[in-house]
Amino acid sequence: MTSRFSLLSRLTTLALVSLAFLATAASASAQTGKLSGRVVDQDGQPLISASVLVVGTTYGAATDLDGVYNILRIPPGTVSVRVSSIGYQTQLIEGVQMASNTTTTLNVTLVDETVRGEEVVVTADQPIVDVTQTSTLATIGRDEIAALPVQELGDVVNLQAGVVDGHFRGGRIGEVQFQVDGVSVNNPYDNTSTLTLDRSVLQEVQVISGTFDAEYGQALSGVVNAVLRSGDPSRYEASFEIFGGDFISPGNDSTQVRTFIGGRDSVATVAQIPYISDVDPMSRLNLQASLSGPVPVVPNTTFLFNGQRFRSESELAGVRTFVPTDSSNFESNVFLPTGDGAVVPLGFSERWSYLAKVQNTSIRNVRMDYQVIGSVRDGQNANYAYRFNPDGQRQQHEVSYVHGFGLQHTLSNNVFYELNLRQNVFNFADYRFESLGTLPETGTRFALPDDSPYAAAGRPIGSQNFGNGAIIQGNDLGRFVQRTNALVAKGAMTAQVTNVHLIKGGFEVQRSDVEFGTPGSVRALVIDGVQRLGVLRDTLGAQVIDFQPVQGAAFVQDRIEWGDLRVRAGLRMEFFDANATVPSDLQNPANSIDGAPESVPVDTTPKVVFAPRLGVSFPFLDRASLFFSYGHFYQLPGLGTFFNNADYSVLRDLQQGNEGSQGILGNPDLDPEFTAQYEFGFKSQVTRDLGLDVSLFYKDIRSLLGVEFIQTYTAAQYARWTNVDFGNVRGFTVSVNQRNLGPLSTTLDYSFQIATGNTSDPRETFNRVQGGDDALPRVAPFNWDQRHTLNATAILSQPNSYNVTGILRMGSGQPYTPSLGTGFGANLEPNSGRKDLSVTVDLRAEKVLSIGPGGGSAFLRVFNVFDSYYQNGFVYADTGSPYYTLNPETQLNPNPGRFAAPRRIEIGLSVNLARPTRR
Fold first, then answer.
1. Which of 60, 185, 545, 592 allows an S-S link to 53, with CB 3.0 to 4.6 Å?
2. 0.85 exceeded by the pTM?
3. In terms of DSSP H, where are the helices of 676-795?
4. Residues near 890 by Cβ (< 8 Å), separated by ≥ 6?
5. 332 in helix, strand or coil?
6. At 284, is the secondary structure helix, strand, or coil?
């Protein structure tokens, strides 16, 4: 550890501890909206000092000389607003929808008071399209989430225009910033979310698939911000939900497939999804409960508790014919199974999830809260090779949680600041057994001891004479762990400087402790002339590496609202220090070449980048606007790639002939990846209940993670990570929203995109070289280049009676690389083939029930209604079909895991209870 890191570590820790003393809440309060507008009389003259108050809160403002008011810090959701002025009738506007980081405009006309004390109640006219947005932003509220056939945050995100299986507008996986209440929950190891959020904890979800403000960073393609629910100080609420279900695909345990092999047309019966006709309504079970309201003994304090137990089993099942410790005679093809013959799922997931949140407003103009949200999960990824020995598969164990404190302090009606402190923890283990047994203290290689659980069964073995190569003996030897402990501090100040300028500036600091690797690699070794299952000494602990990088950012953002013109301009500075070393001479990386210049470890260089952002929206028709946005976006590759295999001493024996055996060397001195994004669009409220949103976009992607080959002084070469890959994405989206056609509301969005680049996978260049192919970059469609995507939603609803929602998703074929047979040179041009079109339909039906004081509902959800087996997944390279191949052996023993999940049906009941508090 360098002295430079020691000093920086202390300064960072001091800053985080100082913030901890200042703040006692997580940042739910940071996710607020702004209410703005003008109050006039019947003649259009401004009313001065009119009172505008959000009912049930302390949020309010008085109008200025022009009748203009601005109210900041309003939490997302539906609110009522009371507007009053002396000599005029008080007006109560209900159903005003607030969204995070968005301005809601509410203009009010008051009439002369004719009857003292009379209050006029009206319902807010919610625009079906927000024509003031400067980029593509989707806001999905709690009621809308409840009506959709979705269960988790990821399901909501994948329904948005421009999102294909987690890829935002053609970007790679891991290019999205996931936030909870405005603070990052990304795991820096691979830039994915550390949390799985159930819909029951979501108040609002914002999905930004276009350009985004300077407040957001460490993302190339988009931002997902989940705002969590909070307790209501005016009432106690309790909710319970239970549902069960299973895959329902009767008769598809086997199917007949037409094949064309050797010029002969034949029909073969093959297992499609074995045992799928065995229905168990408890194979997918969810139990969820929540309780919220004011804390009885502590004034001005609310709470929310939510717990969930969720279990699901994969559609793939196997038969426990063998157990891992069976011993068969493979030479004589004598198989000795001792399993019980039970049909068991090959994969499963069991998860306990929880949320606890406490909020306090005892101190004047200060809101404080603390929250913790997390889960504990045990699971097993289905591996069809273990279909007769299911107990031999390795299992996954995961513990993740995010907790923190934060504070929001209002200095005046127009100025407030926020301070937030979070800890993001993610612990993951993937192995069959945690223990290797009692290992000797000396030696470089040794057989596993008798007390090792791996020794009893040995390595996994299969036979082509039983189940066409299925593994029938031994345990999966794979072992991997990954642990992340990240401290995040974020602060921001927001000021309504004038009626035109809303300025926000802030900072973010993150210090991460990232560990990952193999805690002892178990393999077949030759010890004393006999092949035994053993361990190499240098893989014990040494392969679990630990790094403590530091990253930070500062930003300033101006939201200009001048009449109907909207401008969002900002600048973000990002900083990263890997706190690691690299060889000073890459041509002598292990300092092992005699006579070559000496190579010594040198510190990596801190990286600083500046990212401008600009968005403009201006009206040109009544309730219609054009918008344009542009921005630079930077993101660090996952730290697991930075540091994996970054010990260059493995090259000490590098010479011509053994190149590539060391794999791809890590590079802690990588630069951030870069994307310049342009967006131009049109938004229009065609009628009161019909909205149109059209957006054209272009992304120039540079400095993506890729592989370079470095030649040493001895003419040997090795591969290491660098910023070399590139790509671009261009396309457009069209969204149409329609509501209130009787009980029917519909939405339709279509996306067209062309996503191309030199590689879909950063390892692709290395793999081509290892396979003897040309390593020169060639531009080809990315693997996820889905040219046409269509999502259609229809909701048939009668308030307090029923709700039926259907979602149709259509995607044109993604690319694949076709082949002519097998062996060297069989593959054609990369991604020159196209898969077939795929279509799926999901359905949710709900019937409202009169249960208790809060009511309830019974619901039915059907996923993949028409039981489509193909959804842009695996295809055979020689045919382009997921159903058949020209290889007879593979054709008669297909892996059903190549298909999408079949039809799934869930039936459930939810109950809501509410009781107002005593005043």
1. 60
2. yes
3. 764-770
4. 876
5. coil
6. strand
